[in-house]
């Protein structure tokens, strides 16, 4: 039997079309396997909330993923299906998102009777920090960061809008700004009440020293810094948050299975192997997490 050029072309085209589907199935299978192994090692329910920033390659328009109502529906279902005595491990990698969705997830977490642990391999900003505050323990990479949870009205910080009213005579301020300032005060008050509720959570036991609660509320909600300010492990520990430093290697392996989609060649490359004789890294502040021999 002889094959023409067009026969070979169609075979190659069919194989090329099938390979991405096969690769996607393999990655999905590896993700499920990794999650099951992590759940077995921790004896917990593991929930991933990972948001990457993707871009449309043709137009180059960035489209940020964030915590949405769909996310809250899925996370709430996972929490609802978790028996009361089973701990929950939430792996967070997110820039934040909708206040409604974030508050729904956070309330469900503080109502869960067993321990809730949040893992932050890289960053959990804004709404992600709110979810971290709902946990009993926050386990972070030494270089990971959290962020402020001060309200934003559109693309403006609520605290900055109030500043305009405070620094200018009321006769020189237009009605729209006055209305925005009123909404800003309400938004800050609402966020502070909610953060206080999260910090006072005592299920299964108190997690924040009472004398630190108002200090944390003040630092995170009043707009003392910009909304994208990175709160380091050292600063979060100093505030009194229940921070533990050091992630199990299995968390990093899981993150490798959720890569940023590449429109072209990768912008970062390295040789994935340990080097002998490397200088010792400085020991960060905070409580170190013991090495897991099964990792």
TrEMBL record:
Originating species: Funiculus sociatus GB2-A5
Name of the featured protein: Uncharacterized protein
Domain of life: Bacteria
Gene3D superfamilies: 2-enoyl-CoA Hydratase, Chain A, domain 1
InterPro entries, per the entry: ClpP/crotonase-like_dom_sf, Pept_S49_ser-pept_pro
Alphabetical list of PANTHER family matching this protein: PERIPLASMIC SERINE PROTEASE
